[in-house]
Please model this.
Amino acid sequence: MTQSKATMGIHDRQLHVFFFPFFANGHIIPTIELARVFASRGLKTTVVTTPLNEPYISRTVGKANITIKTIKFPSPEQTGLPEGCENSDRLSGMQIIPFLKSTVLLRDPLEQLLQQELPDLIIADMFFPWATDSAAKFGIPRIVFHGLGFFPLCVSACVRTYKPQDKVSSYTEPFLVPNLPGEIMLTKMQLPQTPKHDAEFTKILDEANASELNSYGVIANSFYELEPVYADHYRNELGRKAWHLGPVCLSNRDAAEKAHRGKEATIDQHECLKWLDTKEPDSVVYVCFGSMTTFPNAQLKEIALGLEASGQAFIWVVKKESSENEEWLPEGFEERTVDQGKGFIIRGWAPQVLILDHKAVGGFVTHCGWNSAMEGMCAGLPMVTWPMYAEQFYNAKFLTDIVKTGVSVGVQTWIGLMGGEPVKKEVIEKALKRIMVGDEAEEIRNRAKDIAQMAKRAVEEGGSSYSDFNSLIEDLRSRTL
Ligand code: UDP
Model:
């Protein structure tokens, strides 16, 4: 005799989990990788998204047993945004604020789905603060996924609670983050909110924080051995309920999964791998600033010249279309580097994890988005840290000061947003050499390789992240018992 879902106890039936990622590839990718972890552990897994985000999701899902359900994105009349703006990729400048605000209109369709399917849990992005109340209507717990590790979560919580930034007299005066192990110093220019942000953005972040406090807990994209002090601090001192289930990028098991994440790569992956195969181990530096960062031409030129001057082979990802004019390239640069087999430029989207995991890659210049930082750590790479915005300055500090696998390029402020001088080629050259050649590079690389080993152990059966997954499931089952 088969039991209906209603009569079967939560302890003896397959649990069903909804995932609701924010519409940006830096959020979609780790959320789907997390969903893959749940699917691989035998849970029924459903991802909710909008029609124009569906291709990014299905590409990342790959062969995993995950159902995708779509709900309609509000119309341009409702949002004031141009037609087709369903992903942050399609936005320019401060359109992000109306975009974030318009997602509240998804509340009704999401609630309809929740009512129909009655999942046991919804894991929703921090940018959907209203999802906690939506889920509560149906007695469903909501967990927040920011895609971050414990260190940035702790820094954010301490800055928000103690407001040390209110006690300094300028945007550049350093302050100590209170009640945080490790004497972490920051300036106001390194916080997720800068003077360029208006009250509306602050309000959105406040709402996100409030909904996090009311939620069932937080999932960290991290593993215990990487940051035990901050994992303990977050739970025990700051009193937050959290599970560490990462690194989620390790759910990409084969080349196909590593190559198809988020957007379609703008190069032939085989051509890129063939080029890497011709290089010595640890000899190529990979340069990429995440899914959204763009630089002015003056900065791109300095990066090109710094790469060339460093003498290192490189793969450089530039968020430019190949159809755009190429004023950002110094004269004769491609002839002297790419044509000589010393460099590879990807204009658009790179298969990042596939590249990072190739044995020829020996260093990573990163904007320190947490996903990139984690992917670099999992690949055992020394990194040049070049934070740009959001919580990236926190992540950069983690790499340079806590795990000590990063070397700072020296940026101190949100230069992308605030203007300012580009980082000069000499500075870039020096940072590249520090992570690629000599005793310091070797020392950093050894540390980085140890971290990569620990990461792999954490997600294997019996590892800390594997076990914390069991704790989460036990919590969920006992909740309803
Ligand atoms: N990414 C990629 N190819 C690119 C740029 C980014 O695969 O050309 C992926 C990268 O591997 C990471 C995500 O996009 O998983 C970016 O997330 P991150 O947190 O590093 O930065 P964000 O884009 O959110 O600033």
Q: What stands out?
A: The longest strand covers residues 44-49. The chain has two domains: 16-250+459-480, 264-457. The chain has 20 helices and 15 strands.
